[in-house]
Amino acid sequence: MVVAIHIDDGISGAVRDRPEFMKWLEDVRTCQVDTLVAWHVDRLTREGVNVAALILDAIEGKDSVTGKVIRTPARLVDTKGLDSDGDETSFRLQFVLQAEIARAERERMRDRSAARHRRARAAGRWSGGVIPYGFRPVKAEDDKGYVLEHHPEEARVVREAADRILCGASWGAVTRWLNSPEGHPPHKAKA
Questions:
Q1: Cα 21 from chain centroid?
Q2: What is the pLDDT of residue 113?
Q3: How do residues 19-41 score in pLDDT, each as one tens digit?
Q4: Comparing C-alpha atoms, which of 127, 131, 137, 129 is closest to residue 187?
Q5: Is position 93 within any domain?
Q6: Is the CB of residue 35 less than 8 Å from the CB of residue 67?
Q7: Are residue 128 and residue 158 in the same domain, yes or no?
Q8: pTM above 0.85, yes or no
Q9: Domain assignment of residue 7, yes or no
Q10: pLDDT tens digits, residue range 109-126?
Q11: What pLDDT is stored for residue 189 in this prediction?
């Protein structure tokens, strides 16, 4: 019988306090379930051994502070064949290795992303992310990515804000002007 389904869509396994992950752990800690099912270890954690230990304590029925067994252990399986019901030593080794491999892959993804952004900036291209107010992305002339160009209306607002500050207006006054009903909210402002 399925007791609960916990899905943290769109939240990285690198985030430890995902709401549904925490509920998933709580289900085993409160003996609500006797088996936990996960898609794959790298969906549980991309923090490596730190969170792997937390999960192992939970499924082994251990108190996370003392390490003493305080409740009935639970079973952990994933859709890729990992199963804690069997050779405990092999399972623990495989589980921790997969968690560390997921952590290392997260580090590699972060490094590749940073390198990609550096290459784009060095080539004079927009590297992505939030579009700075006053600019808009346009296709590069060589069709390789995008560059930023001034957004006519927004650039005018930026110039006016700068002029107000240079003429002695306070940052607060300029911010109030920008946020006023006739103001110019940033791209992500709620309407």
A1: 14
A2: 94
A3: 999 999 999 999 999 999 999 98
A4: 131
A5: yes
A6: no
A7: yes
A8: no
A9: no
A10: 999 999 999 999 899 899
A11: 61
Average pLDDT, the chain: 91
Strands 146-150 and 135-139 turn out to be: antiparallel
The domain in which residue 34 lies consists of 19-122
φ, ψ of residue 99 to 5 degrees: the values are: -65, -40
The one-letter amino acid code at 69 reads V
Three-state SS annotation for 70-104? CCCCCEEEECCCCECCCCHHHHHHHHHHHHHHHHH
Residue 9's Cβ-count burial label (10 Å; 0-12, 13-18, 19+) is exposed
CB atoms within 10 A of CB 81: 8
Residues 42 and 58 occupy one common structural domain: yes
DSSP three-state, residue 65: coil
CB neighbours of 62 closer than 8 A, spacing ≥ 6?
56, 68, 69, 70
Asked if the model's pLDDT at residue 191 lies above 60, the reply is no
CA distance 43 to 6: 12
Could you give the number of structural domains in the chain?
2
pLDDT at 104 (0 to 100): 97
Q: In terms of domains, do 105 and 159 share one?
A: no
